[in-house]
Design goal:
The protein has one domain: Roll (Nuclear Transport Factor 2, Chain: A), CATH 3.10.450.50. The chain is 32% helix and 40% strand. The chain is built from 4 helices and 6 strands. It has a 6-stranded mixed β-sheet with strand order 2-1-6-5-4-3. 22% of the residues are buried. The mean pLDDT is 95.
Length: 136
């Protein structure tokens, strides 16, 4: 008989599945995991850095700004997903053409905290110089 999955294993599985679809271009499963009242911090001092106190605030003030500087879909690869307790760490990369003629080649490490199967807190580490290049 198979033992039931532990909470870290369950968290890792649901985040991995959502991220596999996210980097392939279907972001809906990932955003469905994110709680409306998520606390999302983007490290650095870029135009999208800061702490956002809701999913909508993060989308409006970070995601939409970044995507607005891109000239195509943001596609990528998941490199590693690690889980410990209620935290899941996702190391991933993405790429897209930029409206300014450059290429957005980003490496991320997102630390997600889950509660009841939902992302309630995220700290996003990324190449801030690359983010700034989208806005130059």
């Amino acid at each position: 008989m198979t033992e039931p999955a532990t909470e870290p294993e369950q968290n890792r599985r649901i985040v991995t599945e959502a991220f596999q679809r996210f980097v392939a271009g279907d972001q809906r499963p990932f955003w469905a995991l994110v709680a409306d009242d998520v606390r999302w911090t983007v490290i650095g001092s870029t135009d999208i850095s800061g702490t956002f106190e809701s999913k909508q605030a993060f989308i409006d003030n970070a995601t939409s700004k970044l995507v607005g500087g891109l000239d195509g879909p943001l596609l990528g690869t998941v490199r590693k997903v690690l889980a410990d307790g209620d935290h899941v760490v996702v190391q991933w990369e993405s790429s897209a053409p930029m409206r300014n003629g450059g290429r957005y080649q980003q490496t991320y490490c997102w630390v997600l905290r889950l509660a009841d199967g939902r992302v309630v807190e995220t700290v996003a580490y990324l190449d801030t110089e690359m983010v700034s290049s989208v806005f130059s």
